[in-house]
Specification:
The chain is an alpha/beta fold. 33% of the residues lie in helices and 14% in strands. It has a single domain, classed as TIM Barrel, CATH 3.20.20.80.
């Protein structure tokens, strides 16, 4: 009996705070947005045979076929490191006459590989896009939930940060209640914010809402967006809002409505979407002086944190018929100049658009120079640069934002 009491006492001592081994290994604090460089992660790609039963989603304008005349992407992913079950043959061929292959975001091994790339190149993590318009459709919801689980696993295995970002694009009037219900499900059933690597901001789990205040005739209102932000904050979350570039002045891509500024003041973080708003290195510098620095000053006064967006280049030819290579990458100089201006202006964190976005050719993950060829077939390459070049540029930018590398005007990454 005495032996049992001594054993029980020993176990209790180990579990009590400050008395034993349990106290020596407290749970680490969740990752904070401050000081981080995070990429947007679409996770929206599907292929026939991947198990999602959705066809060629975000590869082709036709779900049943993906070949010349149907492509909706301008970059081609490098799948050379992927296993046989991760690669899906298309109707395109490369210069050697071999079938060109792509990947599916529904495949867990591929998503885990993406997270290992983030870890390898020193990128802090992702905002996972959760497309609100697809929450009503069972197959789309399954895709969203499956990719979320893949990303949670990847974040845990690689110690990368992960946060949910709701994209409101194409949502209808009085439809944002769907987002509230989905968030309740993610917190109560999926328990996403309890993950060790779920991103926090100033002590609270962070959730982002993208698509607020744009003047492109969206059907949902600012009042609905404000109600959603207030709901999320009442749920104990920090809220980041994705807004137009010229939100502060209420012009150009922004609604000319002071209610937008009031809504932003109620948020914790504001992130203006700048993809396509400048195209050259001089324009990057001018944007920093005329927009970025005044934005930061406004936010400092309003006590709202600021997450600038940087992007490597842009092309939307195969989906929209626009010019191929509309905003050239300039062999990494364009992306690097934005990192430099963000750091010089005093930004404490950066959002990179995007990790896997080959549709608009803003991807920074591994893409190939061995693109499909044929009559009428046009894709961008990485200009002969190694497929991991933009991962290395983003990793260098991350170190500069962290303060572990000095501000450097010259791109510190060589081919």
């Amino acid at each position: 009996m005495i032996l049992r009491l001594l054993l029980l006492s020993s176990i209790l001592l180990e579990l009590l705070p400050g008395t034993g081994r349990a106290a020596e290994s407290p749970s680490p604090a969740p990752p904070s947005l401050l000081g981080k460089v995070l990429c947007g992660y679409q996770g929206w790609f599907n292929c026939p045979g991947d198990g999602a039963d959705r066809g060629w989603v975000h590869w082709s304008r036709r779900g049943s076929a993906f070949g010349p005349g149907t492509a909706t992407v301008d970059l081609w992913p490098d799948v050379s490191e992927l296993g046989p079950t991760e690669r899906f043959a298309t109707g395109f061929t490369n210069a050697a006459g071999q079938p060109a292959e792509v990947f599916s975001s529904f495949h867990t091994d591929t998503v885990q590989r993406h997270f290992r790339w983030m870890q390898q190149y020193g990128i802090d993590g992702i905002f996972l896009q959760r497309f609100a318009v697809g929450l009503r459709d069972p197959k789309s919801l399954r895709q969203n939930n499956t990719v979320l689980e893949h990303c949670r696993k990847g974040a845990q295995q690689t110690q990368r940060a992960l946060a949910v970002m709701y994209d409101l694009s194409e949502m209808g009037s009085k439809s944002l209640a769907l987002v509230r219900e989905d968030w309740r499900t993610l917190r109560s059933q999926f328990r996403v914010t309890e993950d060790r690597h779920y991103l926090h901001h100033r002590g609270k789990p962070l959730v982002a809402v993208w698509g607020i205040g744009f003047n492109d005739n969206r059907k949902y209102s600012l009042a609905e967006c404000r109600e959603l932000v207030e709901f999320l904050r009442a749920d104990g979350c920090a809220v980041m809002v994705g807004v137009p570039t010229f939100w502060r002045e209420l012009k150009r891509d922004a609604l000319a409505d002071p209610a937008l500024l009031d809504l932003i003041r109620r948020a914790d973080v504001v992130s203006p979407w700048t993809v396509g708003r400048y195209r050259t290195l001089p324009e990057v510098a001018r944007h920093a002086e005329q927009v970025l620095k005044p934005d930061l000053a406004w936010c400092a006064e309003a006590k709202v944190d600021y997450l600038p967006v940087v992007f490597p280049g842009f092309s939307w030819h195969n989906l929209t018929g626009g010019p191929l290579n509309a905003i050239p990458r300039q062999r990494g100089e364009f992306l690097w100049s934005q990192f430099v201006e963000a750091k010089r202006a005093g930004s404490q964190m950066v959002y990179v658009a995007m990790f896997d976005e080959v549709d608009e050719a803003t991807a920074i993950f591994k893409c190939t120079n061995d693109v499909p060829v044929g009559e009428g077939v046009q894709f961008l390459s990485y200009e002969g640069l190694p497929s991991d070049f933009y991962l290395r540029v983003t990793g260098a930018g991350t170190r500069m934002i962290h303060g572990t590398a000095p501000l450097q005007e010259r791109l510190p990454v060589s081919p």
